[in-house]
Write a structure and sequence with these properties.
- The chain has 19 helices and six strands.
- The strands form three sheets. The protein has a two-stranded antiparallel sheet with strand order 1-2.
- Helix 7 packs parallel to helix 19.
- The N terminus is likely disordered.
- It is an enzyme of class 4 (lyase).
- Its main location: cytoplasm.
C-alpha cells in the first residue's frame, strides 16, 4: 500500500541532517517519523544538557576547546535549558532525537562553536549517559517515596501492636496475629525492595561518556573528570560494553516488577479487607470511588489500580529482556526501544508508591470485627497442641488429640475456648484448668514472644529496629 508522504520529503536537503554528508537523497518522510525518538526521549533533555556541560568543560580543560569556546557553549546550553523548562523549545521530528535537537539549537544560538560540542563523543555514549543520569534521578525519587511509605507503615504498626486479627494460610484462618505484625510483614518486603534499588543504583552510577561510538576516541579526553563532574562513581571499563549495555535498565525493571508484586499483594489484602465479607478496614473516601448505578458502593480503586499496574511493569521487564537477547556488540538501533518501557516502569513505580505512602497511614482497622473473625476457625488449635507437648505428650499424639477436640467443637457449633474442662479432658487427661490461658486470642499472640513473633512487645521492638534502619539511610 502506498503512502503519499513516503516519497515527498518536502524538498529536504540530505546535508541538512547533522549526519547527512555521505547521503545522496533525503530520508523518506515515513522513515523519518518511524525512526525518530524525540517524541519520548525529550524527557531526558535536562540530563542531556547536564552531560554536554560536563563534556564541554572537560574538553576545555584538556585543550580541545578554548576557554572562550567553552564559555559560549556553556551559556548557550544554559539558555536552552531555560527554554525547555519554560516549554518554549521548538522540538523537531526532522532532527530525530533529543541530542540532535539540542545540538542544532545550540548552533543556531552561538554559531559554528556549537558544532564543536560533539568532539570526542558519539550519540551512542551520549544516550547511554543520559539514560543513566535520568534513571539515577528517578531512583532517588523512588527511594524517597519508599522511605515515606515504610515510615508510615511502621508508625501504624506500632500503634496497632495489640490489635488482634486472624492470620491466614490458604486464605483460611490459621492462627491469631496482630495487625501491627501484619503491617511489618509488608515493611519487610519493602525493605528488601529498597536494598535491591540501592544495589541497582550502584551499577547505574557508572559513566559511559567518552566511549564514543564503540571504540573510544583519539582525542585526549579525561573520562574520570566527566564522571566526577556528573557525580558518577567511576567511568565504565570497556567502550564496546559501555554503549551497548542496558543491564542497568533491565535490573531496574526487575526491581520495579518485584516492588509492584509486593504492592499488589498488599493491595489484594486491602481489597479483601474492605469488602463487606471481611469488613476489617475502613479506607478513607479520598482513596475510593463510587458506582454510576449502585449508590451504596464504595470501591477501593487505588489498591485495585495498583494491583492492575503490576502486569504493566512485568511486561516492561519482559520487553527489555527480549530487546537485548539477540543484539551483537555494540550499539544497535533496537536500543531506541529501551526508553519507553524504562520510562513507564519508573513512572508507574513512583506513582504507585506515592499512592500507597499517602494511603497506608490513613488505614483504620475495625478492631471488633478483626477480633471476632480471629475467634472463628479454631485459630488457637495450635496453641492447644503446644500446651499438650509441654505436658509431655508427643507432638503427633497432641496433633491427633486437638483434631478430635476440634471435630467435637464443630459438632457443638462452638470454639475450643467455649468447651468445658470436662469436655476437653475426654480427649486427654493431662489437660488442666490452665489450658484456658492458651486458648484465648490474647494468650495466643502473647505466647509468640521471640524475635519475629507476633507478641505485642515483639512488634514494638521490631518497629524500633525498623525505624533505626530507615533512619540510617
Amino acid at each position: 500500500m502506498s503512502n503519499d508522504n513516503s516519497s515527498a520529503n518536502n524538498g529536504q536537503n540530505p546535508a541538512a541532517k547533522l549526519w547527512g554528508g555521505r547521503f545522496s537523497e533525503a530520508t523518506d518522510a515515513f522513515v523519518e517519523r518511524f525512526t525518530a525518538s524525540v517524541m519520548f526521549d525529550q524527557r531526558m533533555a535536562l540530563e542531556d544538557i547536564q552531560g554536554s556541560l560536563a563534556h564541554a568543560q572537560m574538553l576545555s580543560e584538556v585543550g580541545v576547546l578554548t576557554a572562550d569556546e567553552f564559555k559560549q557553549i556553556e551559556g548557550g546550553l544554559k539558555d536552552i535549558a531555560e527554554e525547555i523548562k519554560a516549554g518554549e523549545f521548538p522540538w523537531s521530528v526532522a532532527l530525530e532525537d533529543v541530542h540532535m535537537n539540542i545540538e542544532a539549537r545550540l548552533t543556531d544560538r552561538i554559531g559554528a562553536t556549537g558544532k564543536k560540542l560533539h568532539t570526542g563523543r558519539s550519540r551512542n555514549d551520549q544516550v547511554a549517559t543520559d539514560i543513566r543520569l535520568w534513571l539515577r534521578n528517578r531512583i532517588d525519587q523512588i527511594a524517597s517515596e519508599l522511605t515515606r511509605l515504610q515510615t508510615g507503615l511502621v508508625d501504624l504498626a506500632e500503634k496497632e501492636a495489640d490489635t488482634i486479627m486472624p492470620g491466614f494460610t490458604h486464605l483460611q484462618s490459621a492462627q491469631p496475629v496482630t495487625f501491627g505484625h501484619h503491617l511489618l510483614a509488608w515493611n519487610e518486603m519493602l525493605t528488601r525492595d529498597y536494598e535491591r534499588l540501592m544495589d541497582c543504583r550502584k551499577r547505574v552510577n557508572r559513566s559511559p561518556l567518552g566511549a564514543a561510538a564503540l571504540a573510544g576516541t583519539s582525542y585526549p579526553i579525561n573520562r574520570a573528570r566527566t564522571a566526577e563532574l556528573l557525580g558518577f562513581d567511576a567511568p565504565t571499563e570497556n567502550s564496546l560494553d559501555s554503549v551497548s549495555d542496558r543491564d542497568f535498565a533491565i535490573e531496574f525493571c526487575a526491581f520495579s516488577a518485584l516492588l509492584l508484586t509486593h504492592l499488589s499483594r498488599a493491595s489484594e489484602e486491602l481489597v479483601l479487607w474492605t469488602s463487606s465479607q471481611f469488613d476489617f478496614i475502613d479506607l478513607p473516601d479520598r482513596f475510593c470511588t463510587g458506582s454510576s448505578i449502585m449508590p451504596q458502593k464504595k470501591n477501593p480503586d487505588v489498591p485495585e489500580l495498583v494491583r492492575g499496574k503490576t502486569g504493566r511493569v512485568n511486561g516492561h521487564l519482559i520487553a527489555l529482556l527480549t530487546l537485548m537477547k539477540s543484539q551483537p556488540l555494540a550499539y544497535n538501533k533496537d536500543n531506541q526501544e529501551d526508553k519507553e518501557p524504562l520510562f513507564d516502569a519508573a513512572d508507574t513505580a513512583l506513582d504507585c508508591l506515592r499512592a500507597f505512602a499517602d494511603m497506608a497511614p490513613a488505614l483504620k482497622p475495625k478492631k471488633e470485627n478483626m477480633l471476632a473473625a480471629a475467634a472463628k476457625g479454631f485459630s488457637t488449635a495450635t496453641d492447644l497442641a503446644d500446651y499438650l507437648v509441654r505436658k509431655g505428650v508427643a507432638f503427633r499424639d497432641a496433633h491427633e488429640i486437638v483434631g478430635q477436640s476440634v471435630a467435637f467443637a464443630i459438632e457443638k457449633d462452638c470454639d475450643l475456648a467455649d468447651l468445658s474442662l470436662e469436655e476437653l479432658q475426654k480427649f486427654s487427661d493431662v489437660i488442666g484448668e490452665d489450658v484456658f490461658d492458651v486458648l484465648t486470642l490474647e494468650g495466643s499472640v502473647a505466647a509468640r514472644d521471640h524475635i519475629g513473633g507476633t507478641a505485642p512487645n515483639q512488634v514494638r521492638a521490631a518497629c524500633e529496629r525498623a525505624r533505626k534502619l530507615i533512619a540510617s539511610r
